[in-house]
Design a protein that fits this description.
The structure is a single chain. The chain is α+β, with helices and mostly antiparallel strands and about 200 residues long. The chain is built from 8 helices and 6 strands. The longest helix has about 30 residues, at about 175-205. The N and C termini lie far apart (about 35 Å).
Length: about 200
């Protein structure tokens, strides 16, 4: 089961959560909020908000491309646009022994591509995790009761199969198969429309 990463929606989602926290927050909290929001969207709607790949990392589940963007090591051309909207700073915190890495919103996206229900899910994730002390956050995301899809990776980070999330949420095989079929159809339509727009652009030249 694969999703199409949507960079613009990811920036909108990150900007929304940051804006809810005064424009600045610890990077790990941001990652967990967006992961949880994508997970809830997958269970509720059969799709995610960002389309990012879910990964099992030592500090719990995360979104692969979001994690790379935050750490400044994305191999794609989207790193520079991300840096134009989101910056970083380091500061000490009462609940962490070392200086924490904070993410700060430099500029809001020009367009808000989030739907009302997507913002509602992000707000729910923010309410759950944003004020959670660092140690409790780590303990929570390592708890198999809340995140049964996560296993601590040995060596390299490991992908999390969305089917595991759906199965753990008691989705039946028929429901999962329908979600896969809907995703495949949605992907086909997007590719068709993309090629159509490209063709019209070429003709216009």
């Amino acid at each position: 089961m694969k999703f199409r990463f949507d960079f613009e929606k990811t920036i909108c989602a990150a900007a929304h959560v940051l804006d809810c926290n005064g424009g600045t927050m610890d990077f790990l909290h941001l990652i967990k909020i967006l992961y949880w929001s994508d997970k809830k969207a997958l269970i509720d709607w059969g799709r995610t908000i960002t389309g990012d790949r879910m990964m099992a990392m030592p500090q719990g589940p995360a979104l692969k491309e979001l994690n790379s963007l935050i750490h400044g090591d994305s191999k794609h051309i989207i790193q520079n646009p991300w840096n134009a909207h989101v910056g970083e700073l380091y500061a000490r915190s009462s609940d962490h022994p070392k200086k924490k890495r904070y993410i700060t919103l430099l500029k809001k996206p020009g367009r808000d591509l989030l739907s009302e229900v997507e913002r509602k899910v992000l707000d729910e994730g923010n309410k759950m995790f944003a004020r959670m002390p660092y140690a409790i956050l780590i303990k929570t995301v390592h708890n198999k009761e809340y995140f049964p899809e996560w296993n601590k990776p040995r060596g390299a980070n490991q992908p999390i199969d969305p089917i595991r999330i759906l199965s753990a949420a008691c989705k039946s095989p028929d429901q999962i198969q329908k979600i896969e079929a809907d995703l495949a159809h949605h992907g086909f339509v997007n590719r068709f429309l993309g090629s159509l727009v490209f063709g019209l652009t070429v003709l216009s030249w």
